[in-house]
Design goal:
By secondary structure, this protein is of the alpha/beta class. The chain has 2 domains: 20-56 and 103-316, Rossmann fold (3-Layer(aba) Sandwich); 66-99, no CATH class. The chain has helices spanning 27-32, 84-90, 125-142, 166-182, 193-202, 222-232, 272-295, 309-316; strands at 66-72, 94-99, 105-111, 146-152, 157-163, 209-215, 236-243, 256-259, 264-267, 300-304. α3 (125-142) runs antiparallel to α4 (166-182) and α5 (193-202) packs parallel to α6. The longest helix has 24 residues, at 272-295.
């Protein structure tokens, strides 16, 4: 028997000791995810079954120029590493191998707008995005890299310079907690804030960084395509689309109240025309985001609000069958 859906909304929000981490995530919950952030990597080297394996050409440069060894050429080696003096002297092709030492900068671009304040089963999309950002931040720190973030709501963008420390991660998690707590049905949606956030990130990220976008793509348009293109020219970009199954599957309820944050109407969930329009309104911006990522050869990871984010991430990255 299919489990009934649990609809979360503004009336579900709780504060203080009664806070529900499914509606507004707490700092304690995000900190606890440090001990779960194991068994996956968001960097280019991936298992063959990972969604990131072979899907795009990495823009990330090597991590250093310290010489490690001289060895025979193997098929697939970069010809730029050929040691021509040794090759000429021995008559056999040799390459120089270097170690990677420089830490990498990773930026988490996390959407916390009102469009993320929706969830029909386990948790709100805003909560899932915060959980994913926390898992990624702890994993990046665990791999010895610097982690920064740009967390945006419908009005503001909050930037965190990449640092390699627990304090840096905690600062990011505190902002996520604050952003979660501020979401309510009275917030006004701002589709244009997505491009404002992209532009703000572009002014801070120059090259050789890994950018991980976590959100629902609300407001994605041709301007977003251009900003993504510019961002991906000299950086690696991974997109994580957070979605709820009910966004494209209108529930068959006798009465359903729909609100845009200012006004609300009561509609019937059984009307076929309404179902079609409801589905198209959700799919339009997601479709444009997916097409842009595919056009630029960038990977997309789909995460829903039903299952645990970590398990979905492990499956997508080939760490679990």
């Amino acid at each position: 028997m299919r489990k009934p859906r649990k609809w979360f909304g503004a009336d579900s929000a709780q504060t203080g000791a009664e806070q529900d981490d499914r509606v507004a995530v707490s700092l304690a919950h995000l900190r606890a995810l440090e001990f779960s952030a194991r068994g996956f990597s968001l960097l280019p080297r991936q298992p063959v079954q990972s969604i990131l394996s072979g899907q795009h050409a990495s823009r990330l440069r090597g991590r250093g120029l310290n010489f490690e060894e001289l060895r025979h050429y193997r098929p697939g080696d970069d010809i730029r590493t050929m040691d021509w003096k040794v090759t000429n002297r021995t008559g056999k092709p040799h390459v120089r191998v270097y170690t990677e030492e420089r830490e990498r900068r990773v930026y988490l671009m996390v959407d916390q707008r009102i469009s993320m304040f929706f969830g029909s089963q386990r948790a709100m999309k805003s909560v899932v995005a915060a959980e994913l950002a926390s898992l990624a931040a702890w994993r990046v720190l665990g791999e010895g890299d610097r982690v920064g973030a740009l967390i945006f709501d419908d009005q503001h963008c909050h930037h965190f310079t990449p640092r390699r420390s627990r304090d840096a991660v905690i600062d990011i998690l505190k902002r996520l907690e604050t952003a979660n707590a501020a979401l309510n049905a009275g917030c006004r949606a701002n589709a244009g804030q997505l491009n404002i956030a992209f532009d703000a990130l572009l002014r801070r990220v120059t090259h050789d960084a890994l950018v991980i976008y976590i959100g629902d793509g609300f407001g994605w348009d041709e301007g977003s395509d251009e900003l993504l293109k510019r961002l991906s020219l000299h950086n690696d970009v991974i997109a994580i689309n957070v979605f709820d199954p009910a966004e494209c599957d209108l529930p068959a309820l006798k009465e359903l109240v729909v609100s845009d944050g200012e006004m609300q109407i009561e509609v019937s969930g059984k009307r076929e025309e309404l179902q079609q329009r409801f589905e198209e309104s959700y799919l339009n911006h997601v479709k444009q985001m997916r097409e842009a990522l595919q056009r630029f050869g960038l990977p997309l990871i789909e995460i829903d609000t039903v299952d645990e984010p970590l398990q979905q991430l492990l499956r997508a990255l080939g760490s679990q069958p």
